[in-house]
Amino acid sequence: MKTSTLIGNACSVIFLLCLLWFIDGWFALVILTVLIIVVAVWIASAIDAYKFHSCKKAAKRGDAEAQLNVGYCYENGKGVEQNHAEAVKWYRRAAEQGNALAQCNLGQCYHGGKGVEQDYDEAVKWLLKAAEQGLAQAQYNLGWCYHNGSGVEQDHTEAVKWFRKAAEQGRSDAQYNLGCCYRNGEGVEQDYAEAVKWCLKAAEQGDVEAQFNVATCYLTGQGVPEDKEEAVKWLTKAAERGHKAAQQYLGACYAKGIGVPYDKKKAMEWYRRAATYSFPLAGLVGGRSKIVVTQPDEQETGQ
After folding, report:
1. What pLDDT, in 10s, does the model give residues 292-303?
2. What ranges make up the beta strands (E) of 192-303?
3. Residue 85 near residue 51, CB atoms below 8 Å
């Protein structure tokens, strides 16, 4: 069924329901709201299915970008029933044609054992191919593998090399991990100023772990001049995102008048939120415990 037909049918249903408003206003409004949501979900699902089948036709003709997108659809159940084995099949076809994102996603599948037997060596093999093409996501993932000795011998120097490549392309997770390497002196000479520089870049992009780490640096004067007000600024950003340790620190700042005027009420509020909400803290390095799969751009399909 064409998208225009689906939309036309939906509009007809909505029009008829609107007539009910004049009969029983509130009841009709509730029914109308529910049905609008149901119809919207149905239309979106139908459109996804249509795009998937159109994309799969191109994939069968050997279009690498289409193969990538078909793999993504199978992996995420978008327009088709979720099937990780099929996702791997289509990622592999695109990867073998040199598609960097497909190589990265195939590597992720091997790393996580999704749709294929877990194999860290194969994961690194495909991540390296994508990383060498300059894909920032793959570079970050490869750095993570070297840092943690996953599929390769642990090598912090190589980890820093790949984190840096991804960080210079603007990936906040790579910037944060590179900053942590400088802070801990892993794979590079310890340099607190460089640590703050890279963590700050990640923090400015909204990375909550980086925001917390930047705050602690301003609190202690590590790598930057001590600045309690600036520390509170970054603690607040992280705390508002639900970071438990940041909430605890911020509560202490208000309780002791550090960087902000003493405020018992706000202190107790942040302590309460710290006790109620939990944000899993990661180590300073390897801040992301999993390799992340990047969503490819949605394949354009004709009507």
Report:
1. 444 444 444 443
2. none
3. no
Q: Sign of the C-alpha dihedral, residues 298, 81, 294, 125?
A: negative
Give the confidence band of 32 by pLDDT, cuts at 50, 70, 90.
Answer: low
- Are the CB atoms for 279 and 244 separated by under 8 Å? yes
Q: Of 52, 53, 49, whose CA–CA distance to 72 is shortest? A: 52
- Name the pTM for this structure: 0.78
Contact 296, 101 (CB under 8 A): yes
- Measured distance CA(203)–CA(224) in Å, rounded: 15
Closest by CA to 245, choosing from 218, 216, 267, is 216
Whole-number Å distance between alpha carbons of 133 and 265: 54
How far separated are the first and last CA of the chain, in Å rounded? 10
Tell me how many degrees the CA angle 186-189-193 measures, rounded to the nearest 5. 100
The tokens 């327009």 sit on which residue?
79
Q: From CA 137, how far away is CA 102, in angstroms rounded?
A: 11
Q: How many residues does the chain have?
A: 303
Segment 59-98, tens digit of pLDDT: 999 999 999 999 999 999 988 999 999 999 999 999 999 9
Orientation of helix 208-220 relative to helix 244-256, angle to 10°: 30
Q: Which amino acid, 275? A: A
3-state helix, strand, coil in the chain (%, to 5): 70, 0, 30
Instruction: Write out the two tokens for 127.
Output: 């991540």
Integer CA distances (angstroms), 129 to 96, 115, 239, in order: 10, 20, 39
Nearest partner of 234 among 247, 225, 222, 221, judged by Cα? 247
For the beta carbon of residue 213, count every other beta carbon within 10 angstroms.
26
